C-alpha cells in the first residue's frame, strides 16, 4: 500500500461527537456550530469566527463583506492553488499575480510594492506550507490584507497565531488540511461591521429585506468533527514538528534546499518541502518505493493565465524544483522510516 501525501487522523472521540449530534435530531445549523465558532475564535485569539461549507466559500464571503467590485484589483501570489483565483472571479474583480520569495515561498513587501495601483483594493497573503509570511512588512504598504491561512492553522508569528493581523483571515478544513472535516472553512475578523456583514450574507432565509445572500453555512455534523479535531490541534502541530526534525536530520546531506522560516516564525509544517534540480526524477522514483512525493502546487496561476512568465522567477523555480514529502500526524514511526529510506534510495539511484 502506498504512503499517500496526506491522511487524516481520526479517533473514537471524533465519531462520538457525530453520534451525539445525531441523537439530538439537529444536524443542520445548531448548538455545535455555535460552539465551534466560539472555540475557533478563542484558538486564534480573534473576536468573530464564522464556519462555512468550504475554504473557498469563506474567501468568497470575505471578499463580499469588503465590498469588492468588478474592476477592483486584488494582489495574490502566483504560487498558490486555483481556489483563490476562483473566489476573485466569482466577484468579477481582477487578480494581479505576483512572484514569491524562493526561500520562504511567500510574497514580500518588496515584491508587492511595484504592483500597487490606484485600483488595488486588497492583498491576499498566503502562509505557504504553514510558514508565516511577513505580515508586518506587507501591512506597512497601507493596503487591506486578507490572510489566507488555509495551510497555517497552528502556525505562529512573533508568538501570536496566524490569522490575527489581516482585516480578515480565512481557514480551510478540507480533508488534507491541519484539521480534516472532509469539507469546511472558517472566516474570521476583529471588525464588528465586517462580522455583521458576513453573518448577514451567510443567512439567506427569513429576512425582512432582500439582497443576494449565500447558503455557505456549515452543518452541525461537520461542526462536531471540527470541534473534536480542534481539541487535538496542539498535538497535530507538535507531531508534525517532530517529524520535520527527523526529516531535516535525515536529509541534511542530500542535495536539498529546505524552506526557510522567518525569524520569530513557528511553522506548523503543513507540508515538508525541499527543493532540488532532481525533483521530477525523485518524485517518480519514490513512488516506485510506495511513497507519494509530489509537487506542492500542481501548476502556478500565471501558467493558467499565460501571463508574464519572465516576471515569476521565484515561482517557476519552486514549481520545477519543489518536492512535498509526506508529513502528517497519522504517519506511524515505521512509515516515517520508510519515507526517509525511499528518498535516500531515490537520490542514490539518480546521482550514482
What can you see in these coordinates?
This protein is α/β, with parallel strands linked by helices. The chain has two domains: 12-230, 3-Layer(aba) Sandwich (Aspartate Aminotransferase, domain 2), CATH 3.40.640.10; 233-351, Aspartate Aminotransferase, domain 1 (Alpha-Beta Complex). It has 13 helices and 13 strands. The chain has helices at 12-24, 31-43, 55-65, 82-91, 109-113, 135-139, 192-201, 220-230, 233-250, 279-288, 301-305, 313-321, 333-351, and strands spanning 48-52, 73-77, 94-98, 120-126, 145-148, 156-157, 160-161, 168-172, 185-189, 257-258, 265-266, 272-275, 322-325. Strands 1-9-8-5-4-2-3 form a seven-stranded mixed β-sheet. Strands 7-6-11 form a three-stranded antiparallel β-sheet, with no helix packed on it. Strands 10-12-13 form a three-stranded antiparallel β-sheet. It is globular and about 75 Å long.
Average pLDDT, all residues = 95
CATH hierarchy: architecture of the largest domain? 3-Layer(aba) Sandwich
Number of strands: 13
The dominant shape is: globular
Largest beta sheet, briefly? 7 strands, mixed
- CATH homologous superfamily classification of the largest domain: Type I PLP-dependent aspartate aminotransferase-like (Major domain)
